[in-house]
Design brief:
This protein is mostly beta strands and 116 residues long. It is built from no helices and eleven strands. It starts with a strand and ends with a strand.
Length: 116
Amino acid sequence: QVQLVESGGGLVQPGGSLRLSCAASVSVFRLNAMGWYRQAPGKERELVATVTRDGGLKYGDSVRGRSTISRDTDKNTVYVQINGLTAEDTAVYYCYAMSLYGYDHWGQGTQVTVSS
């Protein structure tokens, strides 16, 4: 079982930036991919960004161009930074990992609220 521990989030002012961290209980090289999804009230869960075991990056349409995903392989941690936040970025953000066997693992979620 892969454990994912999220940190970051909270209340952010419009136009500000956000940095979320997710630490995995296993090496990132034992995961096919790791990253972040988010879910706003009344909406489906959507991709924020992921990084594959080989370092390939993928971004969701809503954050592409204003977000960066990175990882620290020594700490088994993935980071995502999103700039230019608006109220549309308000959501619960979930850390995600896919094991080498194709199983999905999720963090408990962290609330991000963009408001003045």
